[in-house]
Amino acid sequence: MANQKLWGGRFSMGAAEILDTFNASLPFDKKLYKQDILGSKIHAQMLAKCGILTQEEANLISKGLEQVKSEIENGTFKFIISDEDIHLAIEKRLIEIIGEVGKKLHTARSRNDQVALDFRLFVLDSNKHLRFLVLNLITTLLNIARDHTQSMLPGMTHLQHAQPINFGFLLCAYACMFVRDFERLESSYQRNNYCPLGAAALAGTPYDTDRYFVAKQLGFTAPMLNATDSVSDRDFALDFLYDTSLLIMHISRLAEELVLWSSYEFKFITLSDAYSTGSSIMPQKKNPDVPELLRGKSGRVYGNLMSLLVVMKGLPLAYNKDTQEDKERVFDSFETLEISLRILNSALETMTIHTDFMLKACRVGHLSATDLADFLVQHCRIPFREAHHITGKAVAYAETLQKDLSELSVEELCCVDSRIPKEAHKSLDLKASMESRNSYGGTSTQSTLVQIESLEAWLNLAKNTLEEV
């Protein structure tokens, strides 16, 4: 049987059909066609610059690669499983278009450094795209927060009512999480923005090439230092999978809040009909499927990280075919985060916020109890532990009256303990409780506005920095 493989000179038999199916990555790595064509064009320019190709040959290669790109994008390119991967598929078609000159393109490189380049470029492009979406999400959170710095709701610990906070303050907490996600992605980008092309198979090349030229043209900081590390490293992919895992975890936590808040038990928000679904049997239902799915997506993203960690843990240097399993994991995590960030942002922008139900919930759970204890410490010089005990008695008494602590009259409060002065009653006011927490990072309106302004200043700087990348 005639051997059609570009690498097949050493083989006397063609590949078994099942091997083509098992070995090929073309069904999924064809996503890398843009990166592969870009890398090949720059590689050809470098070969001409170094006198390894003529400028005419490099120009012909570049023109041929542009035709291949056009064919892929207009749907006329024929993907054949026996071509194995996008790299060989493009090179084979290039040779068909421009002839013998196309066979010179692979001079001074290997598929090992070629795939390392293409995949790294994809990861870096995906990193940047997700950062744009994270900034959009932070912008939305801050826009809502600024409108709700006085909208009170119960702050919770252990999912129990704890202290009154404002809704803007709570959204700032999520904005801070997403700021860290952005900064993790940014750090990963900078750490991994080094070019593997030119490492060849694992040991470099005997050709007098210019790796710095290639790195600069492709937007990298510099070439990678060690050729073996260049072709075997997948830390950049693991960094991306780790970063997306933390990002989806924060998305999942916010999604859980949306599920709770949209329930009849809370009724803090109503999700738009455009981002809700119904029941096939119960006509009254309006289900929060978007946030539920966002919670569920975390499992697959975590799985992608664990999958690649397991693939990489036992690999000797340098390149091994096992690393072909890296791409589907990254592709899936990127696509999952891309749609998750977009739909979460839209769901937040279109939801209705019920501040009346939030305020009503503040009158359940004795949210001002800590304020009473603090008043007794500050104004009556009572040790905190004793003040804590007195306040606990006041809470218990309020419950016997089927009242919230904040609803006790002056007389009812003072009868709990002789050490409670009439002036202590003002500490039970929920609004005053929230506004009293004016420490740096606190929940008062003023402190929340400081946080919003700080986050907005960070946001503007981050947008400018990202646009320069």
UniProtKB/TrEMBL annotation:
The keyword Cytoplasm applies. It is an enzyme of class 4 (lyase). The keyword Hydrolase does not apply. GO terms for molecular function: argininosuccinate lyase activity. It comes from the Bacteria. Residues 9-303 form the Fumarate lyase N-terminal domain. It catalyses: 2-(N(omega)-L-arginino)succinate = fumarate + L-arginine. InterPro entries: Arg_succ_lyase_C, Argininosuccinate_lyase, Fumarase/histidase_N, Fumarate_lyase_CS, Fumarate_lyase_fam, Fumarate_lyase_N, L-Aspartase-like. Coiled coil: none annotated. Pathway: Amino-acid biosynthesis; L-arginine biosynthesis; L-arginine from L-ornithine and carbamoyl phosphate: step 3/3. CDD domains: Argininosuccinate_lyase. Keywords: Amino-acid biosynthesis, Arginine biosynthesis, Cytoplasm, Lyase. It holds the Pfam family ASL_C2. Residues 367-435 form the Argininosuccinate lyase C-terminal domain. This is Argininosuccinate lyase. It comes from Helicobacter turcicus.
